[in-house]
Amino acid sequence: MREVHDHHAGDWASRWLGRGLDFEESRLYSPGDDIRDMDWRTTARTGRAHLKIYREERQPLVHLVVDRGATLRFGTRRRLKVAQAARVAAVLAFASAGHNGVIGATLWAGQDEPLPARHGRLAALGLIEAAAAPCPPLADPAPTDALRYVDRLAALEASLPRGTRLVLISDFAWLADAHETQLARLAARCDVWAIQIVDAAERALPEMGAACFHDMASGQRVWLDTGETAVRSAARSAFADHLAGQAARLVRAGVRHQQVDSDADDLVALLAHG
Predict the structure, then answer these.
(1) Which of 132, 131, 142 is nearest to 70 (CA)?
(2) What is the largest CA-CA distance in the chain?
(3) What's the first-to-final CA gap in the chain, in angstroms?
(4) Phi and psi for 188 in degrees, rounded to 5?
(5) Residue among 169, 196, 168 nearest 182 (CA)
(6) Whole-number Å distance between alpha carbons of 272 and 116
(7) Is 172 within 8 Å of 246 (Cβ atoms)?
């Protein structure tokens, strides 16, 4: 059953100009503008390059992507990273619903689950129910798993309307150079915000003697003597370099980026960045 007063993105006009659906005016082209918005008729008439400006919807679509993949099934403080991802999605969904927003979502897992865009509180509740459900069992990692994220990003670009506010909630362990181009294409079309979930043990390996570590994404196992200071220091430096590399890729793609610890309880501060 749908809400009686269901609405969709674009039902309300806005005084803000941006990447909406309704044409507002033309202006002179500036270096760096998206050529897909070129106003060719005005350009031909005046002999100077012009760009079309659209009126942004007052309540654009908010689309939340919740990664429930293998590397999110990890946690050493309070909760798993996948549980924190669900909590982040819940906070943002209710915030959007409080402004009569239109909310859609995609859950990335063994079988990706798209949730259709809906208006208001029912959409938020549907997303929370799906994101908080038990994760399905993990399958053996496939050699093409990294390429799957390219396809996922391409699917978002193809399906989301221009001007969508897209929030990617993940640990971004999958992020590599191969994803930059597709992320940049997506960021040129949508307002993309990456929220990265990080566990405390990833930042600083705890001292617990000899331990076997299992990479759930690759299936590899390795023994480490965490009692050795040099081992913990090397692990800390390696992960810091890993985070810096991921952040650099997101910046180059034009994506806003924020880290959230998996054991953080207060997520209200996220609303100030949304």
Answers:
(1) 142
(2) 75
(3) 30
(4) -70, -20
(5) 168
(6) 26
(7) yes
Q: Measure the CA–CA gap between 91 and 96, rounded to whole angstroms.
A: 9
The string of pLDDT tens digits covering residues 168-191 is 999 999 999 999 999 999 999 999
Q: Each residue of 38-92: pLDDT tens digit? A: 889 888 989 999 888 776 555 668 999 999 998 899 889 889 999 999 999 999 9
Structure tokens at 238: 């390696």
pTM confidence score: 0.76
User: Of the candidates 164, 169, 156, 208, which has an alpha carbon nearest to the alpha carbon of residue 190?
Assistant: 164
Amino acid sitting at position 107:
L
The tokens describing 152, both together, are 């996922």
For residue 243, report the phi and psi dihedrals to the nearest 5 degrees.
-65, -40
CB 81 within 8 A of CB 200: no
Beta-carbon contacts of residue 110 (< 8 Å; ≥ 6 apart): 136, 138, 139
Paired residues of 198 in beta bridges:
261
**Residue 22 phi, psi (nearest 5):** -95, 125
Contact (CB, 8 A) for 166 and 156: yes
Contact in structure between 121 and 129 (CB atoms under 8 Å) = no
Which residues lie closer than 8 Å to 74 by C-beta, 6 or more apart? 80, 81, 199, 216
Contact indicator for 86, 66 with CB cutoff of 8 Å: yes
Inter-axis angle of helices 121-131 and 81-98, nearest 10: 180
Question: What single letter denotes the amino acid at residue 261?
Answer: D
